[in-house]
Design a protein that fits this description.
single chain; about 300 residues; alpha/beta; TIM Barrel; 8-stranded parallel β-barrel; 10 strands; globular; binds 3-hydroxy-3-methylglutaryl-coenzyme A; binds magnesium ion; metal-binding; lyase; Aldolase_TIM
């Protein structure tokens, strides 16, 4: 399989990143982070999520974020919507791209969205139908695609089954989430191959958390399978509050550095991105998790 010549990076920092901060980050900082990332050349960004503030208080200011962020033409600002209530809130706030999120294991589905996998698919059905009617783009996510914090290893066929269910609902693309970062390249490839038997490869994207330091290797493995869409989080921010011990996504700077070196285009300015990684990390009071951001600090700041 030839490597893609261009990769679309979905920036997950403002959502997947900040949803897992122990303290609540101010709306002002969130909005400035989104604007700065777009200035770096990011064209696809997860802005916030319309989930219950009782479940994820860190995203409770979703309306204010949507009202205050700049909306640059040509940039996709996506928000998570687990149900119709979330969808209605997102639309009222002007969202034009949404994400629904399922899991490959029953235990994780229950912990994260308080329902079984089948129930979640039925909840998403009216959401995706409404989105199609309204001309809203829809991403689907499958969590715990190779391993679950409660059930251990997940069979590739199980992940492929849920991926197909999201595809059949009408999701425009599906992010394959290694939520707890336990995947290794060979496992990730087997999982993608199983999914690609049921869903066109161009509909699939990678979403790798870096808990075990495997996320960049897993991103490369997914690239080698032909996936040209990858989620990443500036400074490696984040994790899922309902996945014990999970750390952030692969750092966007690390992915951009790797892709630049492979002459694969992303349209993202690495120097500005490193500056943004340090800017948000300074606000959070710790250095970026990204090795590239740390290595390039003196050259970029
Ligand atoms: P529930 O308690 O079963 O919901 O939660 P419910 O329908 O029974 O409603 C209970 C209350 O929540 C009601 O309010 C509803 O109005 C309210 P009350 O009457 O008690 O005052 N409610 C809402 N409020 C705001 N927005 C909504 C909403 N829906 C109901 N959309 C629910 C079910 C799905 C809402 C809850 O479980 C939830 O919000 N879960 C979100 C968990 C989450 O955000 N996890 C992190 C994102 S997923 C992730 O990070 C993984 C990913 O990155 C991929 C990967 O890494 O694998 C995407
Ligand atoms: Mg995630």
């Amino acid at each position: 399989m030839a490597l893609p010549t261009r990769v679309t990076l979905w920036e997950a920092g403002p959502r997947d990143g900040l949803q897992n901060e122990p303290g609540v980050v101010s709306t002002e900082v969130k909005v400035e982070l989104i604007d700065r990332l777009v200035d770096c050349g990011v064209t696809h960004i997860e802005a916030t999520s319309f989930v219950s503030p009782k479940w994820v208080p860190q995203m409770g200011d979703h309306e204010a974020v949507m009202a205050q962020m700049k909306r640059r033409p040509g940039v996709t600002y996506q928000v998570l919507t687990p149900n119709m209530k979330g969808y209605e809130g997102a639309r009222a706030a002007g969202a034009e791209a949404i994400g629904v999120f399922a899991a490959a294991s029953e235990s994780f589905s229950k912990k994260n969205i308080n329902c079984s996998i089948e129930e979640s698919i039925e909840r998403f059905r009216p959401v995706v139908e409404a989105a199609k009617r309204d001309g809203v783009k829809v991403r689907g996510f499958v969590s715990v695609v190779v391993g679950c914090p409660f059930e251990g290893d997940i069979a590739p066929e199980q992940t492929a089954k849920v991926t197909k269910q999201l595809y059949d609902l009408g999701c425009d693309d599906i992010g394959l989430g290694d939520t707890i970062g336990v995947g290794t390249p060979a496992k990730v490839k087997r999982m993608i191959e199983a999914c690609a038997k049921l869903v066109p490869l161009e509909k699939l994207g990678g979403h790798f958390h870096d808990t075990y330091g495997q996320a960049l290797a897993n991103t490369l493995a997914a690239l080698e399978c032909g996936l040209a869409r990858h989620d990443a989080s500036v400074a490696g921010l984040g994790g899922c509050p309902y996945a014990p011990g999970a750390t952030g996504n692969v750092a966007t700077e690390d992915v951009v550095y790797m892709l630049d070196g492979m002459e694969i285009e992303t349209g993202i300015d690495l120097k500005k991105l490193v500056q943004t990684a340090w800017w948000i990390s300074d606000r959070l009071g710790r250095p970026p998790a990204s090795r590239v951001a740390r290595a390039l600090k003196s050259k970029c700041l």
